[in-house]
Specification:
This protein has 340 residues and is mainly α. The protein is 68% helix and 0% strand.
Amino acid sequence: MATLESLGNETIDDLGLEEQEVIVGRSLRQMAWLRIKRDWVARTCMFLLLLILVVALLAGPICAFFGVDPVTGHIELVQQDGSSLPIGPWGGASWAHPLGIEPGYGRDLMARLLAGSRTSLLIATVATTISISMGVVIGVFAGNLRGRADAIMSRFIDLMLAFPVLLLILAMSPILTERVTNFYAQFHWDNDTLNHWANVTMLILLLSVFSWPYLARIIRGQVLSLREREFVEAAISLGATNRSILFKELLPNLWGPIIVFTTLSFPGVIAAEAGLAYLGVSVQEPDSSWGKILTYSIGYFVQDPAYFFIPLGLLVVVVLSFNLLGDALRDALDPRANRS
């Protein structure tokens, strides 16, 4: 067999050898993406979530195409016998109102769901972003600084986790809404716009402030573990600064738990908003959100089950898709997981 030295400048074709497939190395991110693409459950969930996001962004044009809006009522399509139920089966579904109409007010259910999707997804996106940012910053600094700073931050995290979150949210919501309303009053908005953004801001602040300690505890533990790894000790021995270790060695290895926690926290915020709406902490009429619609539909569960199950099904699809996607990302980012 010819050695590499004896080949010289001769090519593979000159020697009559068959060209072999080139093996290309992949990074952890590339391997994770490849595993996600091979997982049909993850692909399906990503498609559903992307579809819901696009529909929410195009809520206005879609309502205009069908000639409906979330505010206008259609009293003529509601029974006048005191029940206020839609006329016709399946909640009064028709070509003009594909998903039926709302009992009582007679507003189009599809338009209400589209408008509610923008509110619910906005609250979930901003609240999740704030809580993730706070959790990562506090967790990284607590685990990286260690010593007295770590002890103080850890006790603060424990204190936040000890609060009865639900009771605090119920107690703080009217006070915080009043403060936010007074702040937005300087912009001289109309009452509907002022109330909308005041309630949305209140929900974002409450849901984000009480969500970050869980991620902070996870990130702190990950940082403490990474600080003892060989590649970090090697960087320290080579004279790397604390800033360089933080941004080049620690943070790149924290993307896995951050991404997984994000996919699990986002649906949790959506479900929490729906639960708070049932307790009266939500946007006010005529604004709409998935939690607001679901809460109002409970009173018509027996008489008009379609009005209850349509928003419930949409909420279940979104939450389940995010949870399944989070499980798939966790498995894809774990190098020790079973790949068979």
